[in-house]
Amino acid sequence: MEFIENHLLTLILFTPTAAALILLLIPGKNVKVFRWGALAASLIPFALTVFAWARFNPVPNPATPFQFVEQAAWYAAINASYHLGIDGISLPMVLLTTLLTPLALLASFSIKERVKPYMILFLLLETGMLGVFMALDLMLFFVFWEVGLVPMYFLIAQWGGANRNYAALKFVLYTMGGSLGLLLAIQLMGVAVGSFDLVTLAEKWPTIQSLAMPIGIPLETVKTIAFWAFVIAFAIKVPIWPFHTWLPDAHTEAPTAGSMILAGVLLKLGAYGFLRLVLPLFPAEAQRYAWVLAALAVAAIIFGALGAYAQNDFKRLVAYSSINHMGFVVLGVAAAAYTWNATAAGTILDRNIALSGAVLQMFNHGLSAAGMFFLVGVIYDRAHTRDLNEMGGLYAILPVYGTVLIFTAMASLGLPGLNGFVSEFLIVRGVWPIFTLATALSMVGLFFTGAYILKALKLVLHGPLNTRWEGKLTDINARELIVMAPLMVLMLLIGVWPAWLLDVINRAVAFLF
Amino acid sequence: MTSETLTWLIPLPPLLAFFLIVLFTNRNKALSHWVALIAAGLSWLAGMVVFIRAVTTEGLSEHPFAQSIPWLPTGDTSLKIGIQIDPLSTVVLFFVAWTVLMIFIYSVGYHNFGQPAGKHDRKGLPPEGAEVKEKKGKIIHVPSIEPMYSRFFALISLFAFAMFLLVVTDNLLTLYVGWEIMGLCSYLLIGFWYAKESARKAMIKAFLTTRVGDVFMLLGLAALYSLTGTLNYQEILSNPVVLGQLAGALSPVFGLSWAALIGILIFIGTVGKSAQFPLHIWLPDAMEGPTPVSAMIHAATMVSAGVYLVIRFFPLLSAGWEPGGAVTTPMLVMGIVGAFTALFAATIAVAQNDVKRVLAYSTISQLGYMIAALGVGAYAAAAFHLVTHAFFKALLFLGSGSIIHGMEHGVQHTSEHIDPQNMLNMGGLRKKMPVTFWTFLIGGLALSGFPLVTAGFWSKDEILSGAFKSGNMGVFIALALAALLTAFYTARQITLTFLGKPRTRAAEHAHESKWTMTLPLVVLAVFAVGAGWSGIPADFPGLGGLIPNWFEEFVGSMLHVEPVEAVHSLVPLFTSLIVALGGLALGWVVYRGLKERIDPLEKQIGGLYTVLKNKYYVDEFYQAAIIRPANWVANVFTYKFLDQTIIDGILHGIARFGVWLGNGLRNVIDLPVVNGAGDSAARSTRGVGMYLRSKQSGRIQQYMVIAISLLVLAGLVIYFTVGIS
User: By the 8 A CB rule, do B326 and B397 touch?
Assistant: First the structure.
């Protein structure tokens, strides 16, 4: 028991890897072993995360801002260490990851080909994502950042749709292109401060006086370039308009479970990067360019929604909706960046609310986007088409599916009473006094959010039944309902009683910024 | 149980009913409607107990029943939500509880409970009817039960929950939650028969049109919350300090004060929800839904919620206004929008032939009445009309549903192919459907403001006299004209449907509805008359003072200002008498004894009639001016142009540049230099290269190059820009 408590994060982080290795060694073609094995293994990190949640102290302690900290020597030569820890911002992300992975694996039971490598890759992917959320060392952060890419590339390229090669390549190269600058900037900072440790860096880097390096460039410029390197890397991942065009391709071509994780967790890595690295390490630069971020966020909100509205491919529509929703996260981050050194109590509260909303929006979008992608997958598995114009009137033959779809779509739309509304409201409330015009403009996007959601529901469920489906389609089955049930319960729970989650986030945000 | 605890409990039974029906009882129709009915009954009971306790409490407006709990942690504090019963919520709770319960009961009969299932009935379409063999072997057509019966009760239960939530809550955020959930229910219920193309269109139209208002309202919420740190009614609306600050602080928009800006933002929410011009277009189309839905959502409760909101926020909307003084900007806007809508919708109603659509436009018009009343500062009158209107309009809608039901029966019986909702196909239903006729007549007279006996007279008279006293003659004249038209189209409706001789065989064979449908009509008819007695003005000639003007005292106590002594004038009274009686008489004269199925007005006013019939072409205008451009911006500009052409174009351009560069380097360096250096090395390199190329179509390198060159470029740009500054 003590061992578990002392190495909780390591256990959560590497259980999937260990399980992947075990699966690798199991011979045979019995797909059941791999499916159930992977699912069972992925439930362990989830259980441990719930345990961590129970043990987590929501009141941050200034002496130890991170909890469940583990530190061990790693690359001693360059002062990089294996340093893990979580706070009230990363904990919800870890929970989201360990929750969505088993659900995605359960959703993957419909995968028929090459089940073994699929499951192994998926488990490795989980380790990559979790590492990013837990790492307190920049080098470690970068390693996990890159590690997550590889399995996802293969998942798209091997199990994806018709245009999978183009999409997978676009995804991996775009993200790696962003990572290059990130790597250079990280190295520069590590050398300048003499440590890659995030806690040390956050203390020293923002106030650094000179670089101990023979670069003939003013310090200000170096910091600005490093700032943009970080921003671009994360902006591509979020994605922020106009770096978003990889997303519709990747999401649409990925297998269902891949899309669930892509939208549910991978996009959050970028937003998390903003919160964990950009804001603490580059407060002055972030403040200077906050308006750029806000403008791009509004562009993402509006053009994301319009882009979604323009789609006739169900999955592509849902993919575009992610751009729209993540735009709100960035808007909240931009507002916080703009006011990082504010001292007025009112502004501190505004910033606090905006950031809490942003973190909650990350969690909420994880639930609703995963749910929506899964439901697209459910219909695709049966009808073998994603073309909205070929559906129509399906509510009559798929009543349970229709109800689940309406529920999830409403969560995505931000219907009060469900989760999305709480976070959107907080962001709008928090950002309004800081970027009033941007908030007002984002309402255009919010309006079109309604338009594209209703367009999808209209074309899938309502209207005269397209007779070619009569007697061909079966309603959502028990396994699929089990995938949706936890998501729907959480959507409702957060919508009705957000305090259990928001309290943790709110305290962490208030403490950090 | 304390009144506070009881108030918390009011909204819960219907919510439970919703979940019970959806999750467990949906296969059993009888069980489902019992669950819903019992839940509505419990809410009604709790509501009535709270109502009685509230009206017997002294000083309720200063000390309302209130209780709250922290809900949303924000920084060191938290946003609280809770319940509050003050005079305004008391009267609204009263009519909501009654109309909801009546409509639930009515729905049982309306959806043909107890009838057999139709052979050709399908989910998503209205039931077509069943064939039953009588004992003698004769096959007769009878109505069939709604195939989605349980779903209907689940949805109206959720709706009732949201409406109760909206009424009992003590803050704007929970009000917004109830507001939006009702929007969802409205969407789902308008599209209840979703397989109909028209229903599918109407449901989206309703949701999106009201959403226009909602996003503005959300901004109002954010602004109010930012400035005051709370959304609680008491803390904002009963606090002169807060109101004074909001009225005094200048907002960045058009030189409005923050109070005015927030007021207008909130009012735009009402414009959407209460179907005021220019967002009124969704309500008539919403008649696609089953009639109980029209009665509940689109007459008695949901659209009333918009008016309730502005009555509730009247202290903010009127912040800085003294009775008798110049009105504030939001009040001016409300006066203009309300009066215009009242008249505008009334003119359209004159030229509609669908029995429900007439009522839909009538609803828009009457809601405009209430808004206009607030615009001239007639606070209690607006609330009074809200209550009386809820009763008689619910009655009229349910009555129209009964008429349609009777007509459908006739259509099934005669197999005649006519529209059972078109009033020109009716006539003479008085004898076939006596209960419906008498109750509808009461409702219609109340709507027209028939003097003395109907509730509508008292409330409408108060509004007219309020408008007159305020000195705003534009509003007064518009409302008077609207009242005249209201009486006219009501007389037209009653004459066309009930009086004269049947104009079709179906109308000859119509028959009265079941007791589950007629009982609610009778109950509502009692209120359509009786509700008016609670608000007879003290200065009314003869009757005034016989019964105390309880309503005005009770609800008026919400405003913490003393009403000024107004000039006594008989002008508004005579006006309301003349327009009500004149309009009714005129309508009867024009339409009595109509034989052919053509509106006589069509010949007489020709072109104007066509314009009215087509609702001034507002829908067509929106289609051309807003919807089509919006589609273009989404499809062509955003997706095809920005994303696919510009952004992806740049990416692909960089990729092509990469290919060109890679090939160039290969031709200049690789082939001559490296190949020349060593054949075996070259062969293996090429082998790997070819392998990679076939695997990844050669784009890895290109993208790498792109990425690096982008970074270098970005670096350079920043270097130079920052370097210069």
Answer: no
| CB neighbourhood size of B654 (10 A) | 18
Confirm if A372 and A311 have CB atoms less than 8 A apart.
no
Secondary structure, 3-state, A372-421: HHHHHHHHHHHHCCCEHHHCCCHHHCCHHHHHHHHHHHHHHHCCECEHHH
Task: Look at B639 and A462 and tell me if their CB atoms are within 8 Å.
Answer: no
Cis peptide before B278 (omega within 30 of 0): yes
Tens digit of pLDDT for each residue in B89-137? 999 999 999 999 999 999 998 888 888 888 888 888 888 878 888 777 7
Residues facing residue B132 across a β-bridge: B140
Angle at B529 between CA B485 and CA B334, to 5 degrees: 45
The 3-state DSSP class for residue B485 equals helix
A312, amino acid identity: N
Find all residues with CB under 8 Å of B642, minimum gap 6, and list them: A242, A303
Answer yes or no: are the C-beta atoms of A100 and A265 closer than 8 Å: yes
* Residue B593: CA count within 13 A, CB half-sphere: 2
Selection from B588, B600, B461, B585 nearest residue B535 by Cα = B461
* Gap between the Cα atoms of A457 and B424, Å rounded: 37
- Please report which confidence band the pLDDT of residue B248 belongs to, taking 50, 70 and 90 as the band edges: confident
Q: Compute the distance between CA of residue B214 and CA of residue B219 in angstroms, rounded to an integer.
A: 9
**pLDDT of res. B560:** 60
Residue B226 with chain A: CB contacts under 8 Å: 346, 350, 429, 432-433
Residues 6+ apart with CB under 8 A from A133: A86, A90, A93, A94, A97, A269, A272
φ, ψ of residue A248 to 5 degrees: the values are -60, -35
DSSP string for residues in A38-82: HHHHHHHHHHHHHHHHHH--SS-BTTB-SEEEEEEEEEGGGTEEE
Q: Give the C-alpha separation, A146 to A182, whole Å.
A: 11
Q: Say if residue B135 is exposed, middle or buried (CB neighbours under 10 Å; 0-12, 13-18, 19+).
A: exposed
Alpha-carbon distance B159 to B157, whole Å? 5
Return the amino acid letter for A24: L
Q: Which of A173, A353, A410 sits opposite B700 (nearest CB)?
A: A173
Contact A447 B225 (CB under 8 A): no
- The model carries a pTM of 0.90
Contacts of A224 in chain B (CB under 8 A): 718, 722
How far is the C-alpha of B517 from the C-alpha of B510, rounded, in Å? 15
Asked if residue B224 lies in contact with residue B236, where contact means CB atoms within 8 angstroms, the answer is yes
pLDDT at A100 over 90: yes
Beta-carbon separation of B634 and A439 below 8 A? no
Collapsed DSSP state (helix, strand, coil) of residue B30 = helix
B654 → chain A, closest CA residue: A174
Question: What pLDDT, on the 0 to 100 scale, is given for residue B136?
Answer: 77
With CB atoms and an 8 Å threshold, state whether A221 touches B73.
no
* Number of other residues whose CB lies within 10 A of the CB of residue A501: 25
Q: Which two tokens stand for residue B494?
A: 């009653």
ipTM of the complex: 0.92
Question: Distances in Å between the alpha carbon of A124 and those of A147, A149, A256, A485, B219?
Answer: 8, 10, 17, 25, 44
d(CA A449, CA B165): 25
SS3 B643: helix
CB nearest B215 (choices: A165, A177, A447): A447
Task: Say if CB B482 and CB B473 are below 8 A apart.
Answer: no
Both tokens of A73, joined, read 């020597």
> How distant is the alpha carbon of residue A118 from its chain centre?
21
Question: Residue A149: its pLDDT value, please?
Answer: 87
Q: How far apart are CA B165 and CA B170, in angstroms?
A: 10
Size of interface A-B (CB pairs under 8 A): 197
